Amino acid sequence: xxxxxxxxxxxxxxxxxxxxxxxxxxxxxxxxxxxxxxxxxxxxxxxxxxxxxxxxxxxxxxxxxxxxxxxxxxxxxxxxxxxxxxxxxxxxxxxxxxxxxxxxxxxxxxxxxxxxxxxxxxxxxxxxxxxxxxxxxxxxxxxxxxxxxxxxxxxxxxxxxxxxxxxxxxxxxxxxxxxxxxxxxxxxxxxxxxxxxxxxxxxxxxxxxxxxxxxxxxxxxxxxxxxxxxxxxxxxxxxxxxxxxxxxxxxxxxxxxxxxxxxxxxxxxx
Amino acid sequence: xxxxxxxxxxxxxxxxxxxxxxxxxxxxxxxxxxxxxxxxxxxxxxxxxxxxxxxxxxxxxxxxxxxxxxxxxxxxxxxxxxxxxxxxxxxxxxxxxxxxxxxxxxxxxxxxxxxxxxxxxxxxxxxxxxxxxxxxxxxxxxxxxxxxxxxxxxxxxxxxxxxxxxxxxxxxxxxxxxxxxxxxxxxxxxxxxxxxxxxxxxxxxxxxxxxxxxxxxxxxxxxxxxxxxxxxxxxxxxxxxxxxxxxxxxx
Lengths: 270, 251
Prior knowledge:
The structure holds 2 protein chains of 2 kinds.
Chain A: E1 2-10, E2 19-26, E3 31-36, H1 42-49, H2 52-55, E4 60-67, E5 70-71, H3 77-81, E6 84-87, H4 91-94, H5 102-112, H6 117-130, H7 146-158, E7 164-168, H8 176-191, E8 195-199, H9 203-206, E9 212-217, E10 220-226, H10 227-231, H11 245-255, H12 260-269
Chain B: H1 13-30, H2 34-50, H3 53-78, E1 84-88, E2 91-94, H4 95-121, H5 124-133, H6 138-167, H7 176-206, H8 226-248
């Protein structure tokens, strides 16, 4: 369980906080989406949940973060690595740039943990298998497509065996095929018990994937609930979030007097 | 590590580094013609064995040519000597100058061949990880590899920025002046982009326990046979002995 209590945060050098009074719980195996307009605080929330803010980038944090009952306030940064992993939107900058193969890239984290070579190899193979990218093991990370690279990034986090993963717009730079690959991987991960917090602009991705969705507006949680209800909320657009196509299509059809449920169900089924 | 194409490639990276160091410094320590030419021939033979002789010869010629031209011009026409070969205006070309230039050239070529052979036959990652296995800090190892590996990425980025600036009408070709004018709009975005990448990459690495203190267990060890260790010692002692003999005036 990853828990944020009364979190407020301001970046180093800034007087104004960008997050206010955030309370959030992420259970094991739960897939929670975070939506909001640009600068609503999604990325900052991801950095805090992973310990990088203020751990790596500084700034002022109020409130508390605990993971599996352990208060992380005084924990060193590397202690977060085995509890929560974070992935960003650009896979190119998350690859270490020092490895010659995908296998080495995924093995880098366990090696950093000082694990014996045998365990590193075992974890690496398992992470590649979980994401279905074992066939990429010998490929050069620099030569992968965006979708493949993002899967390698997620595998690199998985090999650290964190109980929770935080992903900040993991499909922002991916084509539809890459987005589909990542979505499948996330669903698979959640089913294995990994808690996932996914900040995304693409509500179509979150629709049908997340069990719960949180809406952020100006650094505050303005809505938190079951994905179906939140993504269909009429206030979503006012908060700068585009509802999923299924909802928009349904509304358009309803506006023309048609019964939207059949078509909407067909879209969702796809 | 990927399979390597020749037995020289498969040598321990440190052995190849010592060969390169002994070749480069040895050419200067030995002086004269025999030592540097012997090193040139030895490097050529090793390059032949590694299957990179043609590439190495071409690269070494290209690298040494600009320096060679200036060395020849300066040495031949300005070095004092008693045997004047020919005269151009106020300059005398002396046999002593030609001799000095020739000695410098064979040394330069030895350095170029030695370093070039190392670069062409050694995977930088393998070299740095081997050093890490020998006790170099993982952070230093990472910085060293990241620096080497960043070069192709920067070149690629410079190409992309250049293309996009040209698409917006920037003239980056033609006269030297036009090229010079085109540098600034390329350098700015390249540096800022690289810094942003570094920030994101450092955050990503933190999430993979990069800051954890202590040693890592590397997945592979470069082969390091006992004869290679002996060879490294032999070359190191030979280099020191040659330098000492040169200083003592014995050679």
